[in-house]
Amino acid sequence: MLSKLALGGLKNRFRDYAVLFSGLVIASAVFYMFMALATNTSFLKQNSPISYTPFIFGFGAVLLAIITFVYIVYANSFLLSMRQRDYAMFMMLGAKGRKIGQLIFLETVAIGLFATFAGVLIGLVGTDFIGKWLIHALHAKATGFSAFWMPAILWTFGFFVVLFILSAIYNTAKLLKMPMMRLLRQAQTPNRVKQKKGLFALQVVLGLILLAVGYYCMANALHIGLKAIPTALVTIVMGTYFLFNAVFVGLIALLKRNHSFASKQLHTFTLSQLSFRIRDYTRILSVVSILVALALGAITVGLGFTHDIPVLASQYTVYDLTVASPNAQTQAEMKKLQGVTEKQQYTIKSDDKMVYISQRALDAHPLKVQIRDQSMKGKLRTVTLTSRNFNQIASKYYGAFGIFIGNNRGKQMRVTDNATFAKLGNAETLTTFRVKNFNQNYDTIEKIVTLQQKQYPKLWGNDTDQKFVSYSILNGMYSGLTFMGFFLGISFLAMLASTLMFKILSAANYDKRRYLMLQKIGARPQVLRRSIRQEIGVLFLLPGVVGMIHVLFGLQLFKMILQAPYDNLIVPFGVFIALYGLYYLMTTWMYQNIVINKDLAAKS
What we know:
Elements: H1 2-12, H2 14-38, H3 41-46, H4 53-92, H5 97-138, H6 150-177, H7 180-185, H8 197-219, H9 221-224, H10 228-257, H11 259-262, H12 267-276, H13 278-313, E1 321-324, H14 328-334, E2 340-350, E3 354-358, H15 359-364, E4 367-372, E5 380-385, H16 390-396, E6 412-416, H17 418-423, E7 428-435, H18 442-455, H19 467-506, H20 508-520, H21 525-554, H22 570-595, H23 598-603
Parallel strand pairs: 3-6
Antiparallel strand pairs: 1-7, 2-3, 2-7, 4-5
Helix pairs in contact: 1-5, 2-4, 2-5, 2-6, 2-19, 4-6, 4-13, 5-6, 5-19, 8-10, 10-12, 10-13, 12-21, 13-19, 13-21, 13-22, 14-18, 19-22, 21-22
């Protein structure tokens, strides 16, 4: 009977539980997606050139567990607030405390189990879909990656079940100790925090000091060692909370005292809305800012590795593709190349010992090669070849010319005068390409290189002749890190959206009566919508800005493995801001639909 009552309560109030349930599902799905990588040590070791990647993921798992714990605690308080009025009614009708406790326990654990089960299923599908998409898009090997990973399933169920059992015990104890009248009126009780000036100043200073320590650890991780990561983790999380708890409260109080601002339109109402549950806001905004940093940081680093691979590959060869006397099939593939920025065709001729290029052709369009000069301690440098220096460079660095001589391996290359060149036979063509985006042309270039390999087996005497080969080697080393960055960025972005939307929408039903009262006394719908946009805008803007600052300092950690971690930030930041803005618009629209009475709005 008790179980039917518990499940019946869930069924009858499904709309109220929908936001809560969907948030918990996304939280458990993201937790599974992260753990599918974090617990797969063979995948981490095989797809990362960094030896301490498993260590980083271990601390990442701890951070996600902390964030998820805070999220579950908040979700649990929301669950409690929705049902406590019903529990009070049961008590008034004579239900025993022990039975009420069992009912609370069953409902909490049931929601947790259903949400975790659904979250793991969605996590499996999401891991498989995102994984396959990224592997294809990044041409990543992702050796050892598996969407279905039993340790991740066990960790997810174990973690969430334990949390919900603890939550159920806490709910039971809290409700049974709470007076009945307080249960009935708890939802309408504000949780404003009166903060002393001394405590306020202390939190600001402490927050800034902790953030400074965390940023310093990230900037000097190479000298500090592995201790830098856990130290930065703890100090930045705590510093963010202190800063939000102090600054957010102080900012609202300051704006309220500014009568010229507060008296305009519905600013007083908006500020009061923000301060009504200020403690919940400071906690959740701290969590969201960390999630912003994790999502944006992971995507930025992933894009950084994607940018570095072709840059590093270009150090070994100048041209993106070199084609020798292509057959009809190869010519058809050459026409498919996109964004070609440079294309030059040469005619070369050969005899029994040499391969020749004409002086006229070379002076008109000089060739470029990468050579390793001993005077530069083995570093590669680019040399432009004309008729003046060609023979000298070719004699000294003949290995760098293999890509230009087609199937004539074993022969040296020389430049000759135009008259001599005209008398030679065995003419072949040499075509060089440069493209705007190598990764965009990856599949086409791979087909052309494979066809060239079949047409000219000797062409492959030197593996680094074609940029595709060096690109593939580097991609095999770094694509795993790129894959992890994008995968985790997408996962944390989903968690971020769920957390912030859940916090805002969970209060909508309680705020509905306040907006209804404003409508009844004559507030226009457009003014109410503007107030809602401003209120939700603040809740999105503050953690977004703090999270981006965290990322800018956090990129210091990757200076040792990224060529230029701060280059091209406009791409990841722009994409993130666009998606973040979409979440803001969607949340605002959903909130407005809940709190604004459409019938009264139509009449006004």
